[in-house]
Queue: 2 jobs
Job 1
Amino acid sequence: MNEKNILLAHGSGGRLSHNLVKNMIIPLFSNPALDLMDDSARICVPGGEIAFTTDSFVVTPRFFPGGDIGSLSVYGTANDLAVCGAVPEYMSLALIIEEGFSTDELSKILESIKHGAKRCSVKIVTGDTKVVEKGSGDGIFINTAGIGRLTGYDFRPCVPGDHIITSGDLGRHGAAVLAAREEIFRDNRITSDCGPVFPLVSAVMEEVKSVKFMRDPTRGGAASVLNELAESGSVELKINEACLPLSSSVEGLCEALGIDPLYLACEGRVIFVVGREDAERTVEILRKTPGGEGAGIIGEVTEGRPGRVIMVTKLGGRRILDMPVGEPLPRIC
Amino acid sequence: MKYKDEFSDPALASSLVCRIKETVPDREVSFMEVCGTHTMAIHRYGIKSLLPENIRLLSGPGCPVCVTPVSYMDAAIQYSRDPCFMIATFGDLFRVPGSDSSLAMEKALGGDIKIVYSPLGALDLARRNPEKHVIFLGIGFETTLPAIASAIVYAKEEDMDNFSVLFGGKTVPNVLRVLAGSPDLKLAGLILPGHVSAIIGVEPYRFLASEFSIPCAITGFEPLDILFSIARLLDMVNKGRPEVLNLYPRTVKDDGNTRACDLIQRVFCPVDSDWRGIGRIPESGLAIREEFARYDAARRFPIEVPPGKVHPGCRCGEVLKGVITPLECPLFGKACHPESPIGACMVSSEGTCAAYYKYGT
């Protein structure tokens, strides 16, 4: 790394986050489960294989249209398990609370965690609380870890011709949080897509045998997930801009701020890669499942330069869809 | 977004592309887009990949972040190290490298740096943080200047004492004069900035056609706007009749926004200005007038800023003048990339190098 200090951009889910993990962390702890850098680790335990994951949640504001830090901390971890083909079962909950934090607000957050856990059918079986001095934390930070039972689904490698599908419109959570942060955009009322994705992945895995890849495009957005797929699967991806589902309010906010919605997080969506023959049926299954009404095919795996994601624009032009570098920042004019 | 969809209609776009292909002369034609938002739009919509190969689209010095000299960033960084100050900045400047640091790095080391969406956001910060002095990093072209001027006027009306602007405003017409007269460029036409023109109107560009015989088109930022402007520039090239066309009448009035111009005039006065990589251009910048000197951070809190250090291999200046494309810079994509930018053109969201890198042109 060139930087002598950690920058905010190292936490953005883009290229700098990727480099931090790949260059500073993975080499120290290298082992087969970790090295895959998947959303969850697959580990063998007596009696079979489980998926294990952890995630920490820091969000400003803590309450935003469509969700809050509480439910988000459950869905985030449960979704990381689900997209690895696991049934989320148990979760830990650790709270780091800043001195002076309102107990009423804590109660609201805990209620929301309870509601989220119920929706995901996970049990919170262990936890921890720490209180830090005023000024040492931004209200509350939450960490959850989760264990899921792997279903034994056989994910095969992506090959040219496979189709790329999203379970719904993109960039909604990131846009909702950005809008909620700024007075000027509050009328926009973009609602986060924050929710469990297990119903979506289980519906698809039950009926479709050719699922190659599933990932929830959280931090860093769809662009990060697609680039990671292109790199790790050594394939080229072609995305069709005209097919990208985007809500007009998300698109409007992004236009105003000069931000690409594909770099904004989703918290209730899944990007799938399935065999070409199953693509239409996968979309049908998703559309019938709650939370998947906006599903659609957005592109395909192509023969070409591995690691590259090409966007075919609405006009038929071509360009690269790169991984984001840092947090999307609003532009000057 | 119906309005937006209409301006990116694929069928109309393809008929414009056909028209461009039919009318393009049998030689290389170089058009320059002056505005950073145009540069980004051209790459984002993949417009270059649709055009005949002998139409060269050059990017000009239209990204305010890119043309701001390193010494300005160094001054901002110096202020940010003083705990009395809170720095309020547009997001674009956050990662721009100074001589040996950036605001992003200073924030990581404890600098009080906030990103705002408008100069009025910076005023709000000052109102909410009376114990701090808020310095707003006021850079930009005519588009942004009225908002900076308003913030200064409001601050004066409210008699605020904890707000000032580190000002580096620039104006577009005189840098165009330099480019139009440049023997290196041989510009066949200029795509003029839509947002700047919404403020200044058509008149300030007339000299480009009358003195330099360069066809010009003021245009918007949707794909059809850009393709149409290229088609009309080709018409003028073919007929040998250069004019300044306003192809963006849905936003740009011929006489501009007189209220905004009056406000700029009231708060700022013209000065010679340093453009990163280009040098000093007469009357191409603005300074805060004496009447508002209290809100001029540089006058109120004078600091010594040594001359800015620029990487010896950095060719941002030539990129900004359109003399080379980023691909011709030896640092591009190697030592200089968005994660560790060497020049501002790689970091700003409207920078030419960032556009080339991000969209892989």
Job 2
Amino acid sequence: MKLIRRQDHGDPARQPGWPQALNPRLDRRHFLRAAGLGGLAASVTPGLVKESEAAQEPGAINLPQLEQVKTICGNCAVGCGFVGEVQDGVWVSQEPWFEHPINLGSLCSKGAAAREHVISEKRLRYPMKRVNGQWQRLSWDQAMSEIVDKLQEIREQHGPDALMLLGSAHHNNETAYALRKFAAFWGSNNIDHQARICHSTTVAGLANVWGYGAMTNSMNDIRHSRSIMIIGENVCTSHPIAMQHILTAKEVNRAQVIVVDPRFSKTAAFANQYARIRSGTDVAFIYGLIYIILKNGWEDKRMLNERTYGLQALVDEVGKFDPDTVENITGVSKDELERIARTMADNRPGTVIWAMGGTQHTNGTSITRSYCALQLVLGNMGVPGGGTNVFRGHDNVQGATDLGVLSNTLPGYYGLGAGAWNHWANVWGADVEDLKSRFTNEKMMQKVGFTVARWYEGVLLDAEELGQDVNVHAAFYWGHSTNCQSQLDRIKRALEKVDLLVDIDPFVTTTSILPDRPDGVYILPAATVYEQYGSVTNSNRDIQWRNRVVAPVWESRSDLAIMLDLAERLGFKDGLTRNTQAAWEGVPESMADVKELPEETYASIIREWNLGMRTIGMTGQTYERMKRQQEWAHAFDIKTKAAVGGPVDGEQWGLPWPCWTEQHPGTHILYRTDIPVSQGGLGFRARWGTQAPDGDTLLAANGSAPAGSSVNGGYAELKDWKTDLTGQVFADAMAKELAPFGNGRARFNSWNIPDPVPAHREPIHSPRPDLIAQWPTYDDVKDHYRVPTLFKSLQKPDWVKDYPIILSSGRQVEFEGGGNSERACWWLVELQPEMYVEIHPKLANDHRIRHGDWVWIESPEDQDGKPSRIKVKAKITKRVGPDMVYLPFHWGGMLEGESLASKYPAGYVPYGLGESANIVTNYGYDRVTQMQETKTGLCRISKA
Amino acid sequence: MAQTQVTIPFRESEGPQAKHAPARLKFYVDVKRCIECGGCEVACKNENNVPEGIARIRVVTVNEGEAGESNVAVPCMHCSKAPCVAVCPVDALYHREDGIVQVNKETCIGCGYCLYACPFGAPQFPKSSPFGARGVMDKCTYCAGGPEEPFSDRERRLYGSNRIAEGKLPMCASVCSTKALVAGDGEEVANVVRQRMAARGSGGGGWAWGTAYPESK
Amino acid sequence: MEPIILWQTKWSYSLHVPLYLFFGGLTSGIFLAAVVADLMERKWQGAALLSKVSSYSAIVTLALAGFFLTVHLGKPERGLAFPLFFTNYDSWMTRGGWIVGVGTLLVLLYAALWYRGGAAWVRRLVGLVGLPVLLMLAVYTGLLLSRGTFVPLWSSKYLPFLFLNSGITTGLAASGLVGLVALWFRGPQPQTAHSVVRWISMAVALFILLELFEIYNFMTYLAGSGQHAPTGEFVAPKGGAHVYQYVTRGALAPWFWWGVIGLGLTVPLLLTLVEFLLDCLTRPLGWHRVLFTVPKFALVLLGGILLRCVIVWGGDLSAPLDFPPSVWPIPPISGG
């Protein structure tokens, strides 16, 4: 309830009861300004009647005076801004932030519900622990000492690798960085986060093509595109605000929107062309396009000759994918294929957008690389309107990935080798030997750890089968949902078996209530993203400062406070909170009862990662520059994201990395050579040396270099560019207009990973036995992120006889990830109250299923001889084809038809409960990154 | 005082009074842009603390899953010739000078006549029980509150927020993901729509085209 | 782009509105029967008694109508004080409220005149003066709905006549029922007592035929929508066809065919036919007649309720938007 100062009680003009006269100062132009429409938004402030005017006029309407806090939405990687209105420390309402260059004031249902994350009745208020099957409240001190005691006990018995840390893509940059550092000081690489199951294949794929594994252009930049291929992504549902830019391109540029998806999604409804493709056959499809492009001579020869390597290898592989073969594999007809290829060739620059539909497959790293190949062949790289626009998931998954909350690298993609450890020890002011002593041994210090996709096998399998000597005995779910991971019934068993399970989250999640166990589970209330300071990196690589709207409510504590408390009790807080230059400011002597850290602590952490994150140039985005951009949002142009005038003149919104120095404006569009490096220009990264194993050069051709380059052609990466902490290397590079990472060629042939040239392989659970023989999956891997991963031994051609229906899963717009926050929000649950399965009318009628009937979905994998299955309601729709069903994956709180509501602590049952799709999603993992194959599996359905 | 006749305030489009000509506020839903993100629905509930079960604005999808799938947000359209105003027996519904249709919850008797006169289903009733106690009508207020003192506690509780008196536009239109829901003075809204239709060419989503020009269907 | 029909469950199969419409129409018919019987007292045996009990019954039915009308409001107390609050005379709700109010006074007056006795001509004058008002009561219920111009089932000119007719049919039947009861206990001997009841039976049969004819016209008109665009249908020319499907073949079909047409109209007609055949072929029925008349009249009443239910529930199909053609359910909104 708003508290407002009252004025003018006796004024006869202001008596209630009959329509109030409209404020005469509000004319129609005033209103339009507030709509944020067109270009007007960029130049004027929102139509708020100014306070001084109101005070002067007699009988003026008094406006409520509220603190306006600019912040960034915490739901997805578009990174929309909005304003929180606070009164007396209470968040009372939200306002649009019209000048924000990315969303122009817009918000989707999740962003519009942001306030409920803080005020929800279902917010976790105090720590709880499971005792004899009941939830009991306990104090923070009690909870922390019990947890730490248990951890130390486990460490003494089994070593540091017995802990699995599941970190979060919702942690802001500083928290994520601190968490990775925490894991290093703890002594284990068993730390990972949601990127693993989201875009890990994109990161690995793209990095292995041209050096960096991130979105190359931006969502705003799509306004320059003339063709837009959206493949394996449903923009309307997953990134609604991005549709603003896509539809503008469609209307203003007459851009051709091509949607390729197994479902006729909401985005497909806006497409000029739609192709229904069998899930997992993207490589065949893309190669079919490339086949047609090369046959007709539509390729960009200059790009291919000057800046790529391995074209012949690609051509050889593409040769296998003539349009007939492609039609057989993908289901896309020859005409459609031809039409799409022609459209993209005729309408350049074009961009390719993808998300989970492309990444969540066993050959995900091949699929993502094939998208790169298409764009290279078309010459759409390094130009406005082109690029591979990877739409990432959570609000800071890009940041958490960059800052290394991953089991295969330290922050900044340095990897885990000796060089990486030396660099970071240098940054942290720590002794490498000291760090080494914390690990089990040097080998484990340099070995990639478990991933969030398969860590539970570390609990369930015998230790001899693992890539480490001990089982996992403790798991920390820190801002992480369990119901997003496939094989959920196996995860349930693992959660029951571990000695210690700690769930740190603002809400009670499926993790805490899924396992049947009497004790050993702790729930710790964390503050939401809106209650913490920090910067976040969106999908565009923009780093935005998020102001904290209100202080942590109830007994919740910020993630950093919890982390430092743990570190203090474990004895390495000092090492954690300092670096070679200084200690973090604002860190109290004792973390007991400390709910949050002040803004200067986060600023200190930014200075630390500015120091160390050299590989991707996260060196120029200082705390001061971030805060300044927030005040000058109105100076940024919507189409180019560049500021015009003011102290931010020339800067790119968000200073997207690489931002080499404090004078650098950020790199909006990667790999563009028409501007100098000091303005954001780049060639491809010369990551693999100057020469390939077969002798061909890996450096860009003569004449191909960013404008103004002092070397007019390719060059190797500069000496010490990754490890020089003084900044001199970068400064010199800018002066000479050289990219620190060199000027190389993009590779079609990535010889260092399986399937050097991207290859089509049938999904493990493929509905086409004939194609399995021709395009089989990989061989099994014995030590794959410390677990054995099955491929070929699991793939059975005759599964499809008993499980004839393709199973796929995906998003709903109202929910995100595990849905534990959103399903505790009444406004969102009102829009989507139930879990369901999408079934085509023909399939439904064949099984005598009517709209609204209960249906069993059964998976081929079983647990101890019992098939995994879920009971959901049928939604009959023509969105899916007659050979496939589709499940949203955000649900939890029901298991095999039984409600789990009684397992929640009293008063914390979410408004929305439903079956988790991941009980039935099948076993399948990417060969390179262990990404889960949840986009294509097999199942059977029956009426319940 | 019954306001069944629409009074269009006199407007001078040129001249020194132009800046202060009263606005006539409208909604427009651009069906070529609405993506059913639910932002308007939730923003309205957030901003106005709407009672449970009431959806002051709803998004409707037609042709789900097929070519021609379209979404449209349906708030109260604040019609110039509002059927609800015409049929309300107690004159609880009225037009403001700026065209916004509001209900006076004190006067409303909950008969439901406005509900079945309205083509959009905008009037809604928070309670429904076997004995017919419906409560009084609640509907989209264009974020202009109601006939109470602006920003008062009473106004907030009965009607929700009053953004118009602050010089702001309704929350739904302010946060629309794709700027599909356009709100503001009728002339300005028409200008925006005109620009979009011109950019899109034929089939650009002009409403009632087929009804107005049946031969060209 | 063709206009579409949207589905809005406003009424959720509730009963208040149908019941209030039903009792309103019933009162009109009962009052009509009372007045006519009053005037024909000399020609029809038992007519006076029938008129008297009918006028008492009219109070009950009107009270019931008022009850359902009042409780379906969100603020019943304001509804009762309608002369103070109902200010919009363009609205049929207001006009109807006054009709109900004035009608109540007239019905009370008429019944009081029967109760206290007194000059018959005064009473008959009151009856004749009141008759148009009470008939208007039945008509207005149809006019009320027909202002819902965006509801295809309601937005036609057939509804007022149908409701008037149905009101008369049901009113006559109710009158016949209460008359029968009264005549059984208090009336002249069985032999002659049925004269008035026989007249009522014939009148009911006649009005049933008329009602069947009207329903037929109404449905044909709906089915043929799309060829013409009368009032209210300009935004959805096919709306009538949609609702015709819904009523005659959709979820409402059983209610419509078995309930309204079958039990409510056809079976009574058949019963009447058999009854009169028996009358002609055998000797006039004695007390056996009640085996026909009681079920017949009861079914007519049932049919009247079901007719109102079907009409009101069919109002769920409304036609607001000009859009590509489709029928798709949208989330229900509260009300009714």
